[in-house]
Amino acid sequence: MVNIKAALRPYADVIIFMITLFAANYFWKWTVSGDENGDLVTWFGWDVTAPFEFMACHIARVVYWLVSLFRDTAFMADEHTIRFVGGTGTSIIWGCTAIKQSFIWLCLIATVRPWIVRFSPFTFHFSPFTLAKLWYIPLGWVCCYAFNILRIFLIALLIEHHPEWFHMLHDYIFKYLFYGMLFGLWVIFVEKIRPSLLPN
User: Fold this and answer.
1) Which of 10, 96, 126, 159 is least buried, going by the fewest C-beta atoms within 10 A?
2) How far apart are CA 196 and CA 30, in angstroms?
3) CA separation for the pair 49, 95 (Å, rounded)
4) What pTM does this model have?
């Protein structure tokens, strides 16, 4: 008779990754909601619009600056929208801020085994593994921010002359590349960093 627990043990990390990814994604969908324009974003019914609005405006400014390095046909139609003189453009709304992906990243690294680590609140001593999580999570956030800027920048450039590509680029190609990047960073942590910090 097959021992299911033993058979799945080599895949435990990947199974935890998948469960965490889906759980974090659906937790976000169930608790965070907002309208298309981002005029109101709520979490458990509480108004959390401010950070999303700030990030959407910030990202729009940064992407516009980058686009302007390559195109002299772009202009800011409003604080969220980059347009081209030909009429095409893109609007950065609350869902384009990568805050969701940053939350999922936090969950993915927080659930990397082992879950119980040495911590002494009286001496403020963290285990090396805990410390690694404390610097690797912010590193992942920086990567989320940078990839999101690159993603929106490339979408903006490509749709100037090919607006019909927007759906494919936004909803498929860059969406899955984003999660592929998170998976790659997770693999580095699990396969390279964790083994060097935990006893054999």
Assistant:
1) 10
2) 37
3) 11
4) 0.90
Torsion angle in degrees (nearest 10) through CA of 163, 164, 168, 173: -40
Q: At what angle do helices 128-159 and 174-188 cross, to 10 degrees?
A: 160
Tens-digit pLDDT profile for residues 37-59: 667 999 999 999 999 999 999 99
Q: Which two tokens stand for residue 137?
A: 């999570």
Reported as a single tens digit per residue, the pLDDT across 107-158 is 999 999 886 555 555 655 677 888 899 999 999 999 999 999 999 999 999 9
φ, ψ of residue 117 to 5 degrees: the values are -125, 160
Instruction: Give CA separation, 57 vs 60, 80, 86, 93, 164, in Å.
Output: 5, 6, 23, 9, 25
Buried b (16+ CB within 10 A) or exposed e, 54-69: ebbbebbebbbebbee
**Number of C-beta neighbours around residue 179 at 10 A:** 14
Q: Tell me, what amino acid is at 55?
A: M
Strand 119-120, strand 89-91: pairing: unpaired
* 117 φ/ψ sector (left φ>0, alpha ψ -120 to 50, else beta): beta
115 contact partners, CB below 8 Å, separation of at least 6:
none
As a whole number of angstroms, the distance between CA 133 and CA 74 comes to 41
